[in-house]
Specification:
seven-stranded mixed β-sheet
Length: 224
């Protein structure tokens, strides 16, 4: 079943192929980032206080994102010149140099395609986040209103959780890696039939996994 192109993409969809203008030149998404993860995040506007604090915080963690094979991309409906002047202002006032590209989407074409505009909020983009994997597939979407700044630590946390889940075919519990009950352990998807239930229970008896019940099993990646 094909997703309706007139609606914003969903988790699991391929990120729509677009060519955009940015502060670092033209980019083709998602093709220019093949083999890498990327985090695309929109902001309501340049020269606005909350957005400024977000960009500073995310830039200061840019090396941590890069260590996770992840690139950062900003977006708003401001033009390239406005983006560049704002980046200069941030550099001059906070001694922080924004190293990632910022998309100029003056007509809001991409913002509309990605569901970043809300008539109830106004003409500016809300604080939307897309996390896209190395194959161009959308793995996570988040939306924040203009009055609430995002948590850059949470962006790193969910990125690490997605990469861990993908690499080990597991799931991560609430607040991972600091879950109140499981700590940094990960969870196994529930068995889908009686044969896999039996195998899961055998693994539990051998100490390969921990189970409170056949559908609630977890393990430490450090032991696997």
């Amino acid at each position: 079943m094909t997703h309706n192109e007139n609606c914003p993409p969903l988790i699991g969809d391929r990120f729509p192929e677009v060519e955009v203008r940015t502060t670092l030149g033209k980019k083709k998404l998602p093709n220019d980032y093949e083999g890498k993860w990327f985090v695309l995040f929109s902001h309501p506007g340049d020269f606005t206080p909350v957005c400024t604090t977000e960009f500073i915080s995310i830039q200061r963690k840019s090396e941590q994102f890069r260590a996770l094979n992840t690139e950062l991309i900003g977006l708003s409906i401001d033009g390239v010149f406005s983006h560049i002047k704002w980046v200069e202002w941030i550099r001059d006032h906070f001694q922080v140099s924004i190293s990632f590209p910022i998309i100029a989407d003056e007509l809001g074409v991409l913002a509309k395609k990605l569901g970043m505009l809300s008539p109830q909020v106004g003409p500016l983009t809300v604080r939307t986040v897309y996390i896209v994997d190395p194959k161009g597939k959308i793995r996570l979407m988040m939306n924040y209103p203009p009055e609430v700044g995002r948590n850059s630590e949470e962006l790193l946390r969910v990125l690490k959780a997605l990469q861990t889940a993908s690499a080990h075919k597991v799931a991560t519990p609430a607040n991972w890696p600091h879950n109140e009950y499981l700590g940094n352990q990960v969870m196994l998807p529930p068995p889908s039939n009686f044969y896999s239930i039996q195998k899961r229970l055998e693994d539990a008896n051998l100490g390969k996994v921990n189970c409170l019940d056949w559908w609630f099993c977890y393990k430490s990646l450090e032991k696997s």
